[in-house]
């Protein structure tokens, strides 16, 4: 068994997922042991294909890709995020087919198997809707006992949502799954949308990194172009990469400068509030502090890690 920390990533690639995956593949302290894929940003056929392509671009074609759930647990999603990530989730640039294919094993079963193979050491990072993880948890409620650390990109901790006024995309896409996971894991790390907004990169700076000329930078420049233009038009000078921030924290916990531990619950009903992550900031409910919420991360470390992932260092 390798000395490196085993890392299992549940994801729905996605332009920001792609950056997070490049960061993970580039990290010498961690070994990516699998990519569990869900539908989210776009449909499952695209997210699986994108994961296969990304592992190839990162020079890690041996890392297994497991296709998982092609829809939320209970309700049809309100909408996907094709308007941000492109219809294929990778900017519609028409990249050539990846070599290889996904494993036959379902992502939820792979999560459980890998949790046994790496019991007590496995770091699990969830970058998409929590559907696969919820299913795994329902199949085997002892799963959290074998996970060293769960890092979730999801939620909006003061209800400044990005998919509805109050809901963040990953939680809003499948609130029932988010409820199952965020109430089923006694402890987890939460990198929410509001932390994302507080840790942007200046567009002109990103363009410099992307001009590095490495195959990774070139591929990433192409697939992110559409979403960067969209972001500059909508959100101004800074570009935000939610999944990359969660991954930076997962890979380098020392970079967290400020966190807060609080109870978090997911609203699954509500005409206006479905998908809200309700944080008990004043500890009024008596519920345990299940979430460690990221408030501030070392921006210099974050920048350096992204640059290194793009081979732009
Ligand atoms: C999250 O939603 C998705 O669109 C992104 O990939 C990220 O995981 C941000 O709300
Ligand atoms: Ca994602």
Automatic annotation (TrEMBL):
GO terms for molecular function: hydrolase activity, hydrolyzing N-glycosyl compounds. The keyword Hydrolase applies. The keyword Hydrolase applies. Pfam families: IU_nuc_hydro. Keywords: Hydrolase. Residues 7-302 form the Inosine/uridine-preferring nucleoside hydrolase domain. PANTHER family: SI:CH211-201H21.5 (PTHR46190:SF1), SI:CH211-201H21.5-RELATED (PTHR46190). This is Inosine/uridine-preferring nucleoside hydrolase.
């Amino acid at each position: 068994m390798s000395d490196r920390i085993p890392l299992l990533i549940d994801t729905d690639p996605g332009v920001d997922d792609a950056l997070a995956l490049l960061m993970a593949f580039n990290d010498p302290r961690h070994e990516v042991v699998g990519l569990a894929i869900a539908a989210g940003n776009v449909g499952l056929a695209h997210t699986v294909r994108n994961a296969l392509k990304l592992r190839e671009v990162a020079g890690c074609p041996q890392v297994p890709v497991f296709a998982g759930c092609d829809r939320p647990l209970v309700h049809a999603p309100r909408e996907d995020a094709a308007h941000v990530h492109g219809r294929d989730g990778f900017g519609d640039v028409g990249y050539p087919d990846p070599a290889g294919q996904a494993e036959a094993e379902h992502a939820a079963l792979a999560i459980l198997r890998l949790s046994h193979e790496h019991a007590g050491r496995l770091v699990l990072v969830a970058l998409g809707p929590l559907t696969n993880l919820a299913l795994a948890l329902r199949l085997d409620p002892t799963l959290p006992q074998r996970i060293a650390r769960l890092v979730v990109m999801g939620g909006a901790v003061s209800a400044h949502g990005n998919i509805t006024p109050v809901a963040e995309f990953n939680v809003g896409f499948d609130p029932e799954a988010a409820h199952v996971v965020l109430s089923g894991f006694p402890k987890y790390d939460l990198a929410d949308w509001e932390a994302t907004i507080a840790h942007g990169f200046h567009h002109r700076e990103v363009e410099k990194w992307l001009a590095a000329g490495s195959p990774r930078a070139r591929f990433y420049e192409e697939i992110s172009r559409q979403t960067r233009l969209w972001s500059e038009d909508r959100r101004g000078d800074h570009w935000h990469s939610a999944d990359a921030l969660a991954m930076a924290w997962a890979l380098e916990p020392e970079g967290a400068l400020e966190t807060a531990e609080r109870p978090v619950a997911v609203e699954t009903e509500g005409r206006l509030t479905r998908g809200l992550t309700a944080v008990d900031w004043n500890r009024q409910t008596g519920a345990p502090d299940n979430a460690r919420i990221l408030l501030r991360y070392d921006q210099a470390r974050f920048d350096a890690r992204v640059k290194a992932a793009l081979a732009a260092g």
